[in-house]
């Protein structure tokens, strides 16, 4: 927990500690005013009174260097905070409403995948997780499940902010529940948060998972998470039949937007053409042409910026007699919050040259510039 972290730092900065505590109180005051429910506000008033009492004890204990007593009072304040927070979060609706898709339109983030590929879409406002399948050129809704998200409704930015990130992610490996704490229930799929785009934007935190819940509780009892997406154990068990690690994407949005099938196909065509041209440029051994596909702000998962990457590629290509690439299992997605300016191209890349071979899952991050699409990031899954 964030508050306990400051105790573990031996309380070197009392002013910062008090500020953090007051910020927690301020956030809850805003929630109380927003909800305008007397019973909740009364409960909150009791919490504030108790917090002030503990704050005085902590202050006096710190002055006397009695860290043990201060620690005890802080734990009590934390416990009271955990009791009050769920009051300010609405429970799941008793009857879940399925995702409604306008005729002739598709979810904005979905552009293209290979035939019979499944995708997940989490909508935070409705607390739903929807399973889609791409077949015969169309994205079809298969099923919608209720879910629980982070206590903080905003996009994730910091460690311990209790927010569920918004963007395009991929489900990596699955950890069975028997290998973890019982609170994860059936098990957990690990998301690749923070991805390279998140890191470029200085977002922090980790450990964002799609998981089940403690078998002795039900989904409605949970109310909120620390940032993960949680569904019922039965739902997760069902979804596990459709999820392929490092292949299945999970898009998380605040509230879903839709676009016409035609407009999505046009953007998909642009990006597929870009990918083919990038592949051909790489195979041509014309390094300058190949590098023209990369933006000056480019950075890869190994920390190379554009200039370092440029020098590296020129050095490597001097010893190449030929390069052959095979690309398959393509997924093309466009994060909703960037309004068409950012795209994700994910595929399996088989690389073969006279002195090196490799096979890996590659993820390209593209940005729409005046001159067209350019690569701003590159990583492997």
Automatic annotation (TrEMBL):
Domain L,D-TPase catalytic: 118-253
Pfam families: Cds6_C (PF24125), YkuD (PF03734)
Biological process per Gene Ontology, one example term: cell wall organization
UniProt KW Membrane keyword: no
Active site: 211 (proton donor/acceptor), 228 (nucleophile)
GO molecular function: transferase activity
Name of this chain's protein: L,D-TPase catalytic domain-containing protein
């Amino acid at each position: 927990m964030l508050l306990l972290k400051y105790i573990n730092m031996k309380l070197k900065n009392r002013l910062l500690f008090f500020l953090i505590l007051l910020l927690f109180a301020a956030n809850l005051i805003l929630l109380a005013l927003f909800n305008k429910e007397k019973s909740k506000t009364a409960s909150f008033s009791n919490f504030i009174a108790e917090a002030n009492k503990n704050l005085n004890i902590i202050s006096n204990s710190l002055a006397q260097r009695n860290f043990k007593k201060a620690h005890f009072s802080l734990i009590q304040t934390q416990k009271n905070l955990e009791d009050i927070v769920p009051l300010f979060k609405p429970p799941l609706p008793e009857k879940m409403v399925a995702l409604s898709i306008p005729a002739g339109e598709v979810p904005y983030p979905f552009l293209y995948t290979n035939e019979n590929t499944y995708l997940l879409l989490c909508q935070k406002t409705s607390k739903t997780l929807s399973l889609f399948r791409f077949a015969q050129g169309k994205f079809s809704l298969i099923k919608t499940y209720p879910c629980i998200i982070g206590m903080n409704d905003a996009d994730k930015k910091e460690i311990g902010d209790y927010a569920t990130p918004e963007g395009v992610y991929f489900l990596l490996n699955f950890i069975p529940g028997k290998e973890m704490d019982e609170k994860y229930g059936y098990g957990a799929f690990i998301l690749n948060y923070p991805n390279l785009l998140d890191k470029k934007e200085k977002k922090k935190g980790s450990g964002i998972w799609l998981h089940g819940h403690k078998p002795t509780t039900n989904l409605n009892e949970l109310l909120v998470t620390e940032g993960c997406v949680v569904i019922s154990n039965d739902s997760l068990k069902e979804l596990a039949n459709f999820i392929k690690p490092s292949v299945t994407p999970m898009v998380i949005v605040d509230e879903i937007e839709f676009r016409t099938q035609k407009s999505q196909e046009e953007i998909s065509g642009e990006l597929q053409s870009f990918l083919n041209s990038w592949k051909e440029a790489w195979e041509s051994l014309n390094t300058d042409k190949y590098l023209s596909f990369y933006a000056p702000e480019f950075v890869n998962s190994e920390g190379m910026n554009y200039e370092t990457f440029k020098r590296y590629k020129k050095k490597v290509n001097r010893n190449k007699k030929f390069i052959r690439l095979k690309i398959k299992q393509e997924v093309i997605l466009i994060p909703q919050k960037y309004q068409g300016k950012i795209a994700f191209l994910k595929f399996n890349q088989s690389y073969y040259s006279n002195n090196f071979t490799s096979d890996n899952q590659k993820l390209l991050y593209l940005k729409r510039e005046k001159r067209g699409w350019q690569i701003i990031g590159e990583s492997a899954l």
